[in-house]
């Protein structure tokens, strides 16, 4: 397989899942695995070792920060870099502890043509 | 000397002596009437409900009337108050019913409601005293007593006035018809004195005067006598009138004061320097009905407070009673305390307390329930509005993310694998390829327009929501050190493509400047200014610069755009004002600069504009510091503090 980075993306919005997949696969050169809920991700992430977790903040069953803290309990995700995506332009989240612990908090709407480059440089800076 | 003349002179002398004596008698009657009035006042219970009030009034009466030996008040036959206290302490609690004579006179005062005069009698001090007693029948059967120094009263009435002119004496005849001289020389009575008498209760008082040197016929003293008499009459009339007026005025003033306190719509209370309740009005009692049995003069503030807490009067105290009481007592000890307290019945009170110069505490309790409820409603409304704004923020942005996401790909339709497959399939047929490319052109064109509209819609949503948050005071700044030069250089890179697309030269000339501020909000300020500059400049340049001096950090955004007409300059920071609104193709909410100004002010800064119409505009944002000690050392020391501050300090 190629050197492309693996991204696990979790979002409850099917359209955002589609746009993000197109962005990361068609524009960027990422390999994307997607889940439409936090629970779906927790149940099926076993065996994956992604380079990046891309998590929506507001989801109905469990929000992004909660999902992250669950994933952090698993040894294989303890150090995986994370980027949050939120439709809330609220600076309160941008200044939250969860956001502080992430590489970045990307605000929706995002530019699908700029996202791959953005993630790539975030991953480079995290190394 | 002719006997007839001698007789006439003698008669004239007697007449002068008689007039002087009549005047003395008149003054004595007036004085007794005046003291009776005082005694009657003492019996009117509602005039002074507390021991302190009684002492205050009694002291005032004694200070102004030296003839008063002591003052006492009884309720239901038992002496409850005396003044002065110390020499008469044994009298407190004395029951008149132990002495049939005392009981009889008290009962007489109660039955007749007239002044009962007892005495003259020998007082403990050996002086002769006269007791005036008045009663107010009722549930408490209040009796007021004033004991007068009898000799002093006689002197006050004029018995010793001009001793070189007249010699005076007084004697009493009691029920046993024994006559006893109580004032002056006994010899006067055997020198044919002029006489006057008056009744003092059961006792008959006789007054006598003779000329100081006996009944001489010499008329030399007559003019002196007449003059003296006239002066005495005037002094006496003035004195009696003044005393009466003083008493009436004081009683009236006190009544007015009590009426005024009662008519206050707020609760009013006074505690003395020992923190014991002196008086309060009915409104105060109404607020604390559960502890009404303790709201009586003499109870300490702490005792009342503890009872109120025990009765559950203060919801705020529940579960931390002792701590709450301590806090409340500390506040009470503060000379100018103000607080708001909720009562168990939902009533809110504003408590204002202040100390007087003599150490008493005056308290006002104002019912602010309506105000509190209005405030609560307003806060709930603001909360609901904030929640609505936050929800709308999310709900509007989420679908826009989808629209803008898909539209972005429609603009690059060639990226779709399906498109690629179709084009590959048609590759052999040039005509079909042409048709497909034409179709792609239409899609890209329309997607571009849709994207522009979508972005514009996003901008509007952001502006409206931002303005809503700013106008309701819901914006919190997350303060940290921001390097303005870095921020402006980043923005320069970000905006340069858009500027160059319009053929504009965009330059950043920023010297190292750091300020304290919210990085996201500062970015928003300069993004707004740059957007405007690009939007309204058709040719030439845009320059962003940052500089600092000892007192301020200055960011300037200058453009060679169309400028702002002079008549619009002073209103461009107002909301809903659209710069260049008449120009085609420029749209917006007119909130951009209003938001910018608000954000600058939130950072404690100022924004200003200068412009020449047709030549360009210059916006200046200045962040000042109260302490003009700018320097990177302080910036580093403050870095990463996450406190929220309302003003930005340039460092």
Entry keywords:
heterodimer, A: 127 residues, alpha/beta, Rossmann fold, 5-stranded parallel beta sheet, 6 helices, globular, B: 651 residues, alpha+beta, Beta-Lactamase, 4 domains, 5-stranded antiparallel beta sheet, 46% helix, elongated
In summary, what is this structure?
With 127 residues, chain A is an alpha/beta fold. Chain A is 40% helix and 19% strand. Chain A has one domain: Rossmann fold, CATH 3.40.50.2300.
Secondary structure layout plus pairing:
The complex is a heterodimer of chains A (127) and B (651).
Chain A: E1 6-10, H1 14-27, E2 31-35, H2 38-44, E3 52-56, H3 64-72, E4 82-86, H4 91-94, H5 97-101, E5 104-107, H6 115-126
Chain B: H1 3-43, H2 51-64, E1 68-75, E2 78-83, H3 100-112, E3 116-122, E4 128-136, E5 142-149, H4 150-157, E6 166-173, E7 179-184, E8 194-200, E9 203-211, H5 222-263, E10 267-271, E11 277-280, H6 282-287, H7 301-310, H8 321-333, E12 336-342, E13 348-355, E14 361-367, H9 369-411, H10 417-426, H11 430-471, E15 480-483, H12 484-501, E16 504-510, E17 514-517, H13 519-535, E18 540-548, E19 552-559, H14 566-569, H15 592-602, E20 605-612, E21 616-624, H16 632-638
Parallel strand pairs in B: 16-18
Antiparallel strand pairs in B: 1-2, 1-5, 3-4, 4-5, 6-7, 6-9, 8-9, 10-11, 10-14, 12-13, 13-14, 15-17, 18-19, 19-21, 20-21
Tell me about this structure.
- The complex is a heterodimer of chains A (127) and B (651).
- Chain A has one domain (6-122): Response regulator (Rossmann fold).
- Chain A has a five-stranded parallel sheet, with helices on both faces.
- In chain A, strand 3, helix 3 (64-72) and strand 4 form a beta-alpha-beta unit.
- Chain A has helices at residues 14-27, 38-44, 64-72, 91-94, 97-101, 115-126; strands at residues 6-10, 31-35, 52-56, 82-86, 104-107.
- The mean pLDDT of chain A is 89.
- Helices cover 40% and strands 19% of the residues of chain A.
- With 651 residues, chain B is α+β, with helices and mostly antiparallel strands.
- Chain B folds into four domains: 14-160 and 218-243, 2-Layer Sandwich (Beta-Lactamase), CATH 3.30.450.20; 267-367, PAS domain (Beta-Lactamase), CATH 3.30.450.20; 374-464; 475-638, Histidine kinase-like ATPase, C-terminal domain (Heat Shock Protein 90, 2-Layer Sandwich).
- Chain B contains 16 helices and 21 strands.
- Chain B has a five-stranded antiparallel sheet with strand order 2-1-5-4-3. In chain B, strands 11-10-14-13-12 form a five-stranded antiparallel sheet, sandwiched between helices. Chain B has a five-stranded mixed sheet with strand order 16-18-19-21-20, covered by helices on one side.
- In chain B, a hairpin with a 5-residue loop joins strand 4 and strand 5 (142-149).
- In chain B, helix 12 (484-501) packs parallel to helix 13 (519-535).
- Mean pLDDT of chain B is 82; it is low at 626-651.
- The chains are: A alpha/beta (127), B alpha+beta (651).
């Amino acid at each position: 397989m190629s050197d492309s980075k693996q991204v696990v993306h979790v979002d409850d919005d099917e359209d955002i899942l589609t746009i993000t997949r197109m962005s990361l696969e068609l524009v960027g050169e990422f390999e994307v695995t997607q889940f439409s809920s936090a629970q779906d991700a927790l149940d099926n992430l076993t065996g994956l070792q992604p380079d990046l977790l891309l998590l929506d903040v507001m989801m109905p069953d469990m929000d992004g920060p909660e999902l992250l803290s669950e994933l952090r309990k698993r040894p294989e995700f303890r150090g995986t870099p994370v980027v949050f995506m939120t439709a809330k332009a609220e600076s309160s989240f941008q200044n939250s502890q969860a956001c502080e612990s992430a590489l970045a908090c990307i605000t929706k709407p995002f530019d699908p043509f700029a996202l791959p480059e953005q993630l790539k440089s975030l991953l480079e800076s995290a190394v | 000397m002719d006997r007839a003349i001698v007789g006439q002179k003698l008669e004239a002398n007697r007449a002068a002596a008689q007039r002087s004596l009549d005047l003395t008698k008149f003054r004595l009657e007036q004085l007794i009437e005046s003291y009776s009035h005082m005694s009657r006042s003492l019996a009117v219970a509602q005039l002074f409900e507390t021991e302190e009030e009684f002492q205050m009034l009694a002291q005032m009466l004694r200070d102004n009337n030296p003839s008063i030996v002591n003052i006492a008040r009884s309720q239901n036959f038992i002496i409850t108050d005396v003044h002065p206290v110390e020499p008469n302490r044994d009298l407190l609690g004395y029951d008149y019913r132990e002495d049939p004579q005392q009981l009889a006179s008290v009962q007489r005062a109660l039955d007749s409601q007239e002044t009962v005069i007892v005495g003259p009698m020998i007082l403990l001090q050996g002086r002769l005293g006269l007791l005036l007693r008045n009663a107010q029948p009722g549930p408490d059967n209040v009796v007021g007593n004033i004991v007068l120094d009898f000799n002093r009263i006689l002197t006050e009435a004029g018995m010793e006035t001009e001793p070189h002119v007249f010699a005076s004496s007084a004697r009493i005849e009691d029920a046993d018809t024994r006559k006893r001289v109580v004032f002056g020389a006994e010899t006067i009575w055997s020198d044919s004195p002029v006489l006057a008498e008056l009744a003092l209760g059961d006792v008959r008082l006789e007054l006598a005067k003779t000329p100081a040197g006996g009944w001489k016929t010499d008329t030399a003293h007559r003019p002196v006598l007449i003059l003296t008499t006239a002066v005495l009459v005037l002094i006496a009339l003035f004195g009696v009138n003044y005393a009466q007026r003083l008493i009436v005025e004081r009683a009236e003033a006190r009544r007015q004061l009590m009426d005024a306190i009662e008519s206050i719509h707020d609760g009013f209370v006074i505690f003395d320097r020992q923190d014991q309740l002196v008086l309060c009005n009915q409104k105060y009692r109404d607020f604390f009905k559960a502890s009404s049995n303790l709201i009586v003069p003499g109870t300490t503030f702490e005792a009342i407070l503890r009872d109120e807490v025990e009765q559950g009067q203060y919801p705020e105290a529940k579960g931390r009673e002792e701590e709450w009481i301590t806090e409340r007592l500390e506040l009470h000890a503060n000379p100018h305390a103000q607080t708001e307290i909720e009562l168990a019945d939902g009533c809110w009170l504003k408590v204002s307390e202040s100390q007087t110069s003599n150490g008493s505490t005056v308290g006002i309790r104002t019912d602010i329930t309506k105000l509190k409820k209005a405030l609560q409603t307003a806060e709930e409304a603001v909360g609901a509005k904030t929640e609505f704004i936050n929800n709308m923020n999310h709900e509007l942005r989420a679908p826009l993310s989808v629209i803008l996401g898909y539209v972005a790909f429609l603009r690059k339709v060639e990226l779709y694998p399906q498109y690629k497959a179709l084009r590959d399939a048609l590759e052999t047929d040039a005509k079909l390829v042409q048709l497909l490319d034409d179709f792609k052109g239409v899609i890209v064109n329309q997607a571009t327009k849709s994207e522009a509209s979508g972005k514009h819609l996003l901008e509007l949503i952001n502006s409206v929501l931002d303005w809503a948050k700013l106008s309701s005071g819901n914006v919190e700044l997350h303060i940290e050190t921001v390097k303005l030069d870095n921020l402006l250089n980043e923005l320069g890179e970000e905006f340069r493509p858009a500027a160059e697309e319009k053929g504009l030269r965009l330059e950043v000339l920023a010297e190292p400047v750091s300020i304290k501020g919210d990085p996201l909000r500062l970015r928003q300020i300069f993004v707004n200014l740059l957007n405007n500059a690009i939007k309204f400049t058709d040719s030439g340049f845009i320059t962003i610069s940052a500089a600092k001096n000892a007192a301020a950090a200055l960011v300037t955004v200058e453009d060679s755009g169309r400028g702002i007409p002079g008549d619009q300059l002073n209103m461009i920071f107002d909301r809903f004002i659209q710069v260049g609104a008449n120009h085609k193709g420029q749209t917006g909410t007119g909130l951009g600069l209003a938001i910018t100004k608000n954000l600058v002010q939130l950072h404690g800064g100022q924004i200003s504009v200068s412009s020449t119409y047709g030549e360009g505009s210059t916006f200046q944002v200045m962040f000042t510091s109260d302490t003009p000690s700018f320097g990177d050392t302080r910036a580093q020391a403050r870095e990463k503090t996450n406190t929220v501050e309302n003003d930005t300090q340039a460092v």
